[in-house]
Design a protein that fits this description.
CATH topology of the largest domain: Butyryl-CoA Dehydrogenase, subunit A, domain 3
Bound molecules: flavin-adenine dinucleotide
Mean pLDDT: 92
Number of domains: 3
Number of helices: 10
Strand content: 15-25%
Shape: globular
Number of strands: 13
CATH architecture of the largest domain: Up-down Bundle
Strand order of the largest sheet: 4-7-8-11
Largest sheet: 4 strands, mixed
Helix content: 40-55%
Radius of gyration: 22 Å
């Protein structure tokens, strides 16, 4: 388990050990003290700051040194999960009886996401497993299902994925073709899914399928499909533009007999269940995109201060200063909004619209940041050995997955032209 001794105290302030060297893809770290902070204060508890220090150490030892190899092989080693599980870094929220800390405070996940971005390991999918898929078991699983699966998910022996998207149904989930037929003592699952993160590594996949396509096209169930079930096949580990260490695969289900005890909740309410998870999913996205933007900013700042053009540092050019000032402003303003979304989410009040705004805006900010970052790097920005280059390709997906930017705008627009719309001065 992570320890208090991973952080130390100085003048009654917690000092986190280890700020990372931005010129390296992993490695050397120096202390970061409160005195260096130049943005609005953030709101983490002392325990969470210690957790941050401990997770940072874990990343430096177990994750960062492997990222390059994982990117080459197109998949994270399964041991990364068990190592994280051993130290209490997977799934913070499950009750202690299942091996978790029983703490649902989203700020723990925020820390995990931010620290992960800080070591360029956005394709290490701890959060996908721990906070994006795992909560389906918590929200809709029976006690028996929780007891059966959660301990192994917390320890990292059972890796999770969620499979909604199909070759012909992404944004339009209602167009899904996968079906599950009630056969009395089991469900018969048929269909194909694509672009599934953790698709190769996953031991347990939450699969969405229609359960009454003739009479009720909205009836959808969520089925727990386990590794080794007959008829469950994995397709290719798809080659991608970025996020190369994350396995993204096609999955096929041919007459898979899913036992009745592997259905999550009501087999007609899957669509509603998926919608309930989306606000948190988009908040996870927003936190991660912004953390990546923060890192891309730092990488670019270091570069322009070092790089000389026409006899002076690139940072002395007014164009550089204006571009960086714009980006610093956008990132810091977005950070305040996202931190506020996290606080509201912890109170159980984050709306789908506000989560959509967070996802939309942070993905756009990140894409602007990495684009300008590459530009300011010049040719170096196009070279693999410079972090900004991979940050650029990794970033492009953020405007597409977890709901595209256009879908985010639809959600926001639906709210603003509805009766629910409240003039700003009436908001309490
Ligand atoms: C790396 C990666 C990982 C992924 N991981 C997972 C996963 O783990 N599980 C999973 O289920 N899925 C996953 N996905 C799928 C992802 O969620 C979908 O790709 C995404 O929702 C978009 O769906 P689509 O690809 O079918 O595009 P489409 O829905 O076909 O969209 C194409 C274009 O049409 C636009 N469009 C669609 N509808 C409208 C509309 N009503 N109005 C205006 N424009 C519209 C879109 O914005 C987009 O620009 C992943 C995808 C990628 C690339």
């Amino acid at each position: 388990m992570w320890q208090e001794s991973d952080a130390c105290r100085r003048n009654n302030r917690v000092v986190i050990k280890g700020g990372c060297d931005n010129n390296k893809l992993s490695g050397a770290c120096s202390p970061v003290t409160d005195e260096r902070l130049t943005m609005l204060p953030r709101n983490f508890t002392e325990e969470q700051q210690m957790f941050r220090a401990a997770y940072r150490k874990f990343l430096e030892k177990e994750i960062a040194p492997n990222v390059e190899r994982w990117r080459e092989q197109g998949i994270v080693d399964r041991e990364a999960y068990t190592k994280a599980g051993e130290q209490g870094f997977l799934m913070i929220w499950p009750d202690e009886q299942y091996g978790g800390m029983g703490d649902h405070d989203f700020r723990f996940e925020q820390i995990i996401i931010e620290e992960t971005a800080n070591v360029y390991a956005g394709d290490w999918t701890n959060t996908l497993h721990s906070r994006l898929v795992g909560p389906y078991l918590d929200r809709f699983g029976s006690d028996e299902q929780k007891a059966r699966f959660l301990p192994k998910c917390v320890s990292g022996e059972c890796i999770l994925a969620v499979a909604m998207t199909e070759p012909d149904a992404g944004s339009d989930l209602a167009g899904m073709r996968a079906t599950a037929k009630d056969m009395g003592d089991h469900w018969l699952l048929n269909g194909a899914k694509t672009y599934i993160s953790n698709g190769i590594n996953a031991d347990l996949v939450v699969v969405a399928a229609k359960t009454d396509p003739e009479n009720n096209p909205h009836a959808m169930g969520l089925f727990l499909v386990e590794r080794g079930m007959e008829g469950f096949e994995r397709g290719r580990n798809l080659k991608k533009m970025g996020m190369k260490a994350q396995d993204t695969a096609e999955l096929f289900f041919n007459d898979v007999q899913v036992p009745k005890e592997n259905v999550l909740g009501d087999p007609t309410l899957g669509f509603v269940y998926l919608m309930q998870g989306l606000a948190e999913e988009r908040l996870i996205g927003a936190v991660g995109f912004l953390a990546a933007a923060q890192k891309a900013f730092e990488v670019t700042r270091d570069f322009v201060m070092e790089r000389k053009v026409f006899g002076k540092p690139l940072s002395a050019m007014q164009n550089t200063q204006f571009q960086m000032a714009d980006l610093r402003t956008e990132i810091d303003v977005a950070q305040a909004y996202v931190d506020q979304c996290v606080a509201v989410h912890n109170e159980g009040k984050l709306t789908a619209e506000d989560a959509a705004k967070a996802k939309l805006y942070t993905s756009e900010v990140l894409c602007r940041m990495v684009d300008e970052g590459v530009q300011l790097h010049g040719g170096a920005g196009y070279m693999d050995e410079y972090p900004i280059s991979r940050m650029y390709t990794d970033a492009r997906i953020t405007r597409i997955f977890a709901g595209t930017s256009e879908v985010m705008k639809l959600i926001i627009a639906r709210d603003l032209f509805s009766d629910k719309f409240a003039p700003y001065i009436d908001r309490t």
